[in-house]
Design a protein that fits this description.
Rossmann fold, P2CMN_synthase_LarB, four-stranded mixed β-sheet, Ribosomal Protein S8, Chain: A, domain 1, alpha/beta
Length: 261
């Protein structure tokens, strides 16, 4: 597993590395190259608070697995999203000897999480995740898996959209009781659920429009962007990963302000 910049600087301070060694290691510690096409940013989490994630669309199964394994080797845990042929990935993973790793494949979200068994994810905070319908669950699960690798607990309630608005209220009550730092709301069709949620709670709402629709797919995005309820931030269509990252950073900042690193 690679060292982060803090560890390298401490080694230099303690006289374990000279100036030339520290310079070389800092340069090497920022990327890991696989073949001639893949260059992994293994130190992204140290800089930004978010580890590099493997975007699976357009990549071969071998590229996805090799990249995710290399990131897990260096960072302890890694996530791949938007995997196009999830069944083939399952078949290839079954053939591999990964006894030192914990592997989680989410077929609905089309995600892969690989974690070194010796790596402990530090747990901080809670985020609520709501979906308007069951067709939105795949995007919500992508957000959930993103938050999992960031160490954030999720409280989920699915299929609570405006078509049956009475289903929403118990879910919101539970999330407020469990003191979530923000709520991710995933909705397609006309995309009104984030506005309704934001009008009822005092925590930030992250709207995620989905491509679930009978008509024009951009409609839920425009609805969320034009919301009259304040307190909503909106990510792009089907971007569960982006919503998860945004929510995770909110949680980390909340806990850091209370002295938790």
């Amino acid at each position: 597993m690679g060292k982060d910049l803090r560890e390298l600087l401490l080694a230099f301070k303690n006289g374990e590395l000279d100036i030339n060694e520290i310079e070389k290691l800092i340069k090497l510690n920022y990327f890991e190259e696989i073949g001639t096409e893949l260059k992994l940013d293994i130190n992204r989490e140290f800089r930004t608070g978010v580890p590099e994630v493997v975007y699976g669309r357009g990549k071969s199964i071998d590229e996805i697995i090799n990249s995710t394994l290399k990131l897990a080797e260096n960072n302890g845990v890694a996530l791949a999203t938007k995997i196009e042929n999830i069944e083939k990935l399952c078949d290839e993973i079954r053939k591999m000897d990964l006894k030192n790793y914990e592997v989680k494949i989410n077929k609905r979200a089309k995600t892969l999480i690989i974690k070194n068994k010796n790596y402990k994810i530090k747990k901080i905070g809670k985020v609520g995740i709501l979906t308007a319908g069951t067709s939105d669950i795949a995007v919500a699960e992508e957000a959930k898996d993103t938050l999992e690798v960031m160490g954030v607990e999720t409280i989920t309630s699915y299929d609570v959209g405006v078509a049956g608005i009475h289903r929403l209220f118990p879910a919101l009550k539970t999330m407020i009781e469990k003191d979530v730092s923000c709520v991710i709301v995933v909705a397609g069709m006309e995309g009104t659920l984030p506005s309704v949620v934001a009008s009822m709670i005092d925590v930030p709402v992250i709207g995620v429009p989905t491509s679930t629709s009978y008509g024009i797919k951009i409609t839920p995005l425009l609805t969320m962007l034009h919301s009259c309820s304040p307190g909503i931030a909106v990510v792009n269509i089907d971007n569960g990963f982006g919503a998860g990252v945004f929510a995770g950073l909110i949680v980390r900042r909340c806990y850091r302000s209370h002295g938790v690193k």
